[in-house]
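Dear H.,

Thanks for agreeing to be a second pair of eyes. The structure we're designing against is below in token form, covering all 322 positions.
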């Protein structure tokens, strides 16, 4: 009797181990090798073409993948438009008039659908687009694990609570990223994507006008030229997140923080006498370390709660459920 019970228990344990192993194996860099061998090259061509037209798009595509993964996992929920059954994530404060590049993902999806319809998910296109964008502007490349599927739902409420704000404190940022399985070091590395891209006046107005001790006076004065003090005047006016090399993926973002020239409050808190100062200093001195850590953190972020196997769907159009 006891032997039978032991055997039964052992069988259950083995089954659970096999299931767990299968879950871990479902994301693979070769996922489309047989079903859509030209998927990656097709996406790359589309993404490179979009960034060639507008350099800023590289930053937007990296951010789009990030804002996708932090809400419900990497499931392309950010791409869904409003519908009778869906409240889109596009209009929460962290995304509205800020997240962009949706049409670029749509173009890449259309190109892939022409090659192999119904095979490649929008979630995977977001992940590949972020890697291709980084590489195109001189940033690191990495091997993207594939096999994510697309959600049939979105969550505006989760987007509001799970995405960082430009006013967040360092403890808030660390906590937010740790809840996603990302360390403080991962958070600082990922923040380094602000070496490219631009921010709207409304996101940094308070910082440049309050004469705080954590901002270089000359930098604040320069930043005010295109950002009027009174809202809504100039709310949408843009400024580069990295004033030195705004179109190149490098480590100048961290050098700027050492000089109190972070544009957003949520940037400067990374170097403000807190626990991440040493990481910022390290990245400012060692661009190769930053590059390597950024790639590793992007891979980790791409692993956040993907839908795999029979979960989710493969959307035909990224903005709507089939």
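And this is the sequence the design step returned. I haven't edited it by hand at all.
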């Amino acid at each position: 009797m006891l032997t039978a019970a032991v055997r039964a228990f052992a069988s259950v344990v083995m089954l659970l181990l096999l299931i767990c192993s299968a879950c871990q194996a479902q994301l693979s860099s070769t996922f489309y090798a047989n079903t859509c061998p030209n998927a990656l090259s097709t996406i790359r061509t589309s993404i490179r073409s979009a960034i060639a037209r507008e350099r800023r798009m590289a930053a937007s595509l990296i951010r789009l993948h990030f804002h996708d993964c932090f809400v419900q996992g990497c499931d392309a929920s950010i791409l869904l438009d409003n519908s009778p059954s869906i409240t889109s994530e596009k209009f929460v404060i962290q995304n509205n008039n800020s997240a962009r590049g949706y049409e670029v993902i749509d173009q890449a999806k259309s190109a892939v659908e022409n090659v192999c319809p119904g095979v490649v998910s929008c979630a995977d296109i977001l992940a590949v687009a972020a890697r291709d964008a980084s590489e195109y502007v001189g940033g690191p490349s990495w091997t993207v694990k594939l096999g994510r599927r697309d959600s049939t739902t979105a969550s505006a409420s989760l987007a509001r609570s799970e995405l960082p704000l430009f006013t967040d404190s360092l403890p808030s940022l660390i906590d937010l990223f740790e809840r996603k399985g990302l360390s403080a070091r991962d958070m600082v590395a990922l923040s380094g994507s602000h070496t490219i891209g631009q921010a709207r006046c409304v996101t940094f107005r308070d910082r440049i006008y309050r004469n705080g001790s954590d901002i270089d006076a000359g930098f604040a004065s320069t930043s005010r030229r295109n950002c009027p003090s009174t809202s809504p005047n100039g709310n949408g006016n843009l400024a580069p997140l990295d004033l030195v090399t705004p179109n190149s993926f490098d480590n100048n973002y961290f050098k700027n923080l050492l000089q109190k020239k972070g544009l957003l409050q949520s940037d400067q808190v990374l170097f403000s006498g807190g626990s991440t100062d040493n990481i910022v200093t390290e990245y400012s001195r060692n661009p190769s370390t930053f590059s390597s850590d950024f790639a590793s953190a992007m891979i980790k972020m791409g692993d956040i709660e993907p839908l795999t196997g029979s979960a989710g769907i493969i959307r035909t159009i990224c903005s709507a459920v089939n």
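Two observations from my side: The radius of gyration is 21 Å. The chain has 14 helices and two strands.

Warmly,
E.
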